[in-house]
Amino acid sequence: MVSPLSDLERASRLGALRNLLDLMRPAVQADGGDLVLVRADVEEGVVEVQLQGACSSCAISSDTLQGGVTRILKDRLSWVTEVIGGLDDTLDLEASSSLGMGGYVPRYRGD
């Protein structure tokens, strides 16, 4: 059986999680969305996050959660065992899409 974490260890894990999410948020915000922490069980390693804003109407939001957020959290925080991701669908499609259309658009340079 795993011994319970001390208050200092729990605070350290939560601080590291928040710092890492703060590093990822600008990339999501550049596209008119946001990434928020819903809950974190630092003892069990379960983290729940939510994509908001323009992300709720984005076709690749599930890729962002799985390929981006989940991978980064598990790679950089060894205690994270599961990431639960969701979308804030309280905005209608029109309001959501008005928040952003994407920050990076690859362009062909015919050099």
Explain the layout of strands and helices.
Elements: H1 7-29, E1 33-41, E2 46-53, H2 61-76, E3 82-87, H3 93-97
Parallel strand pairs: 2-3
Antiparallel strand pairs: 1-2
Keywords:
alpha+beta; elongated; GMP Synthetase, Chain A, domain 3; single chain; 111 residues; three-stranded mixed beta sheet; 21% strand; 3 strands
Quick take:
The protein contains 3 helices and 3 strands; from the N terminus they run H-E-E-H-E-H. A 3-stranded mixed β-sheet has the order 1-2-3.
CATH class: Alpha Beta
User: How many helices does DSSP assign?
Assistant: 3
CATH architecture: 2-Layer Sandwich
User: What overall geometry do the principal axes of the alpha carbons give?
Assistant: elongated
